[in-house]
Every structure is written in C-alpha cells, then in structure tokens.
Amino acid sequence: MIPILAFLLSLLACMYILYRYEYLFEPNLRERLVNLIGRYQALRVYEKPQHLEHRKEPAHYKVLLSEIFKKGEAESLCQLMKVFILRSNVRFDRIVGILMKERADLFAADVEFKLSREGYHIAPILASMLKKPYTLLYEAKDEETGKLYFLYEGELPENETTVIIDDVLTTGESIANAVSYLRGLNRAIKVSEAFVFVSRARPEELAVLSSLDVRVHAMIDRRDLVDRLYARRYLNRDDFRLAYLDADLRDGHGGGEQSVLRLPRRGV
C-alpha cells in the first residue's frame, strides 16, 4: 500500500511540475513562429516596393501577423508569446497591448469619435493565459499638428509594473511613444520591458529605446526569419532575393541589387 501511495504522490508531483513549468518543455519557439508565418504566408514579398509604416522608405517585404490572427490561430501566437515571456523571468503586474495594425492611414480627423481601432489585439488572450490584467492602447492623431498620442481602454493603477506587447518592431516609434505616454501619466507606472514577435529594428533604433531604459525582447529578428523561411521552402529564391533588397536586410551585405548574397542551405 505504501509503495502505491508513494507512486501516486510522485505522479501527482510530476503532473504539477509539468503544469506549473510547461514553458520549460516547449519546443523551439523560433521554429514554431517561422512555421506559423510560413504556413499562413504572413511574410509578404513585393516586386514593387510598398509603404512601410513609420520608416520613410520603400519595403520589398512586410510581416503581417494579422494573417495568422485572421485564420483563427490567435491562440497559437499567444501561446508562443506566453512561453517567451515566462522564459524571460521578467516580473510584472499588467500587460499593456498596442493596437496591431497594418496600414498607416487609419487615423480619422475626428479622433474624439473615430479612434484608430482598425486592427487586432492579442493582449486579452495573452493576459488570460498569463492570468494578468491588461490595458489596451489606441493611437490618435491631431490632424492640425500631426502629433500622435494615446488613449487607453481599461485601468492603469498606480505603482504597477507593466510590460508592453506589440507584434512587429520596425523603428520602435510606437513603443517609445507608448512608454513616454505611460510615464507621463504621473501615476508611478513602471515600464521598462517590451515584447515583440519580430524585430525589424536597426541598431540605432534599438539604441533609442535603450536610451529610454526600455529593453526589447524579440522572439526572432528579420534576417533570421527570412533566412529560415527560405531554408524551409516557404520562400522561393526570387522572393528571398527580393526581400533582401530592403535596407534593413541589406545591412552588412554591401547593399543593392549588385551585392553578393549567400543563400542559406535549404532543407530536404
């Protein structure tokens, strides 16, 4: 009887450990994110350059995680971010989610009644998984001055430590603006960590966030993402070369169409 009881207690202990520390047993997060992006074609390559929000230059590729969201895989995305956050060992009280949008022309003149709400938020799902409260941020634009500012939905109690959640880090402008806004509320809100799925930011743009005492945690950077998508045959050779025409990928490769680009080895 005693050996059986000991076995059952050991089994229960193992089940608790698996439940409590499930994030330690998750497979490679980058691989899972790459497969989601590849499967749902969430990285788009354009022969004719497209406008890239924030950055004043044409883009040959965009990362549109909304494609994954639209296909009913929001929970899969949030599960990856949940594990990523838990593995970071960052302690916090509240999640602050920035509205994730695809276009730069979402702002109406009458911001009092027409806020920039076209987009998607993963914060509610993620907060539920992490058992944390959340607050949503919406950008608004003053049409006379062109100045961007934030309005929020939810609570922002005093003396809370918050983390910012965004989908793709490009220039870091949205996160920097959100941090300045939260700190400017004079409620002793602590915010020094931000989590994103993909970083397209250059060193100088990350340096700006660092100067604000903000540490950015990115699941994958732009070059690693594009290389892995090509290696796993989600991108063909022409699309891979087109993507590498972008300045953020050309850094360190000499730049331009004439530069020699070494293709990653592809899987069988």
How does this structure look, described?
This protein is of the alpha/beta class. The protein has one domain (21-250): Rossmann fold (3-Layer(aba) Sandwich). Helix content is 37%, strand content 22%. The protein has 10 helices and 9 strands. Strands 3, 4, 5, 6, 7, 8 and 9 form a 7-stranded mixed sheet that branches. Strand 7 (168-169), helix 6 (173-183) and strand 8 (190-199) form a beta-alpha-beta unit. Helix 2 packs antiparallel against helix 4 and helix 4 crosses helix 5 (123-130). The chain is globular, with a radius of gyration of 21 Å. The model is unreliable at 16-21, 102-118 and 252-260 (pLDDT under 50).
Summarize the structure.
The chain has 268 residues and is an alpha/beta fold. 37% of the residues lie in helices and 22% in strands.
Give me some keywords for this one.
10 helices, Rossmann fold, 7-stranded mixed beta sheet, alpha/beta, two-stranded antiparallel ribbon, globular, 268 residues
Structural topology:
Elements: H1 2-20, H2 29-39, E1 43-51, E2 58-63, H3 66-70, H4 74-88, E3 94-98, H5 123-130, E4 134-141, E5 148-153, E6 161-165, E7 168-169, H6 173-183, E8 190-199, H7 203-211, E9 215-221, H8 222-231, H9 237-243, H10 247-250
Parallel strand pairs: 3-4, 3-6, 6-8, 7-8, 8-9
Antiparallel strand pairs: 1-2, 4-5
Helix pairs in contact: 2-4, 4-5
